[in-house]
């Protein structure tokens, strides 16, 4: 989402951005600080307003103070989230290189999302609201763009 700043506070420019912030604020108010959230990895900033840990974000693999095992873990998580051709740059062992293809997360079936949540210890899953496969599940919370599910919903 794109952001404007009003009086030093970030304000989303569009409905997707407003809904993304709305979801973060809902999660902050209605979940425990220790709850891990599985979110679309290509959308950034979920930790900012939710103040909750997430499984992975594309920003996690950027330049920064990562060691080799941490970088490899980010790589593994991004590949599991549907990114392809993710590799650790040999000359910069602390950062990742992506071939930016649209990630598959948005189209994952419920079984795959539950498996990811289980594998990474996530209690909640945020998914795009336009995926018709999820219409059969009652979300914990929803707005026009995103739905929040508990990973314990079974099909």
Description:
- It is a single chain.
- The chain has four helices and eight strands, in the order ββαβααββαβββ.
- The chain has helices at residues 15-30, 46-50, 68-80, 110-120; strands at 3-6, 9-12, 37-38, 87-88, 96-97, 124-128, 141-142, 146-150.
- The model has no long low-confidence stretch (mean pLDDT 79).
- β4 and β5 (96-97) form a beta hairpin.
- The chain is of the alpha+beta class and 155 residues long.
- The strands form three sheets. A four-stranded mixed β-sheet has the order 3-6-8-7, with helices on both faces.
Find the count of extended strands (DSSP E, 2+ residues). 8
Number of helices: 4
Overall pLDDT score: 79
Q: What is the share of helical residues?
A: 25-40%
Q: How would you characterize the largest beta sheet? A: 4 strands, mixed
CA-CA gap between termini: 31 Å
Taken as a percent bin, the fraction of beta residues is 15-25%
| Global morphology | globular
Radius of gyration: 16 Å
The SS-based structural class is alpha+beta
Q: Unreliable stretches, pLDDT < 50, 5 or more residues?
A: none
Series of secondary-structure elements, N-terminal to C-terminal: EEHEHHEEHEEE
Strands of the widest sheet, in order across it, are 3-6-8-7
């Amino acid at each position: 989402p794109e952001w404007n700043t009003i009086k030093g506070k970030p304000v989303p420019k569009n409905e997707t951005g407003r809904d993304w912030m709305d979801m973060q604020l809902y999660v902050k108010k209605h979940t425990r600080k220790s709850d891990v959230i599985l979110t679309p990895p290509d959308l950034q900033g979920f930790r900012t307003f939710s103040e909750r840990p997430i499984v992975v974000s594309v920003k996690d693999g950027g330049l920064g103070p990562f060691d080799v095992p941490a970088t490899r873990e980010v790589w593994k998580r991004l590949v599991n989230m549907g990114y392809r051709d993710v590799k650790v740059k040999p000359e910069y062992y602390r950062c990742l290189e992506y071939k930016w293809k649209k990630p598959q997360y948005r189209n994952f079936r419920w079984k795959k999302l539950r498996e990811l949540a289980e594998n990474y210890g996530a209690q909640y899953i945020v998914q795009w609201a336009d995926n018709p496969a999820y219409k059969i599940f009652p979300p914990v919370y929803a707005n026009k763009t995103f739905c929040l599910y508990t990973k314990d919903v079974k099909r």
